Amino acid sequence: MENNNEKQISARTQLELSLGEQLNALISASHALNVRTAALFDSTLQPAAFLIVRWLLSYGPATATTLAESTAMDRSSVSRLVAQLKQLGYVQSETSPEDRRGVIISLTEAGREKASNAIKEKEKEFYKRISTWENSDLETFIDLLRSFNVNGSSSSL
């Protein structure tokens, strides 16, 4: 016969497994949505190229090293993807004003416009999922996610 402590442990284990399932569903759905958004941006490119574009749109011009570190890609992959993006007119590179040997990569106006349009389509899908939620439910969800993300920000999942 299980005692009360064993029942609590079992209930907690089930909750943690359910949380894992839901997080996996969220990550999987997010990845699928990112791939679809990348295809909206330019279906001839690998989704990883759009990751670079999104990073540049969010944070501005950067070196290839910064892009590689920030997107968890190796430098050679970033260089290859940047070359493709450059050839298609989505990014440009300039000599760094601080270090004349360095190169700064930035979005062109065409790249910025296409990325914004693709992201708007992604946002429509996201907002469709929460459109029926009460404000209080959305606030609770945001607070819980914020707490989860802040507490885990020093390590990756």
UniProtKB/TrEMBL annotation:
Describe the location of the HTH marR-type domain by residue ranges: 16-150
Return the protein name: DNA-binding transcriptional regulator, MarR family
For whether the record's keyword set contains Lipoprotein, the answer is: no
> What keywords does the record list, in alphabetical order?
DNA-binding
Mention any Pfam family matching this sequence: MarR_2
Q: Which PANTHER family match?
A: MARR-FAMILY TRANSCRIPTIONAL REGULATOR, TRANSCRIPTIONAL REGULATOR, MARR FAMILY
Q: Which GO terms describe its biological process?
A: response to stress
SMART domains, sorted: HTH_MARR
GO function terms (MF aspect)? DNA binding; DNA-binding transcription factor activity
Q: Does the keyword DNA-binding apply?
A: yes
Q: What is the lineage of its organism?
A: Bacteria, Bacillati, Bacillota, Clostridia, Lachnospirales
Tree of life domain: Bacteria
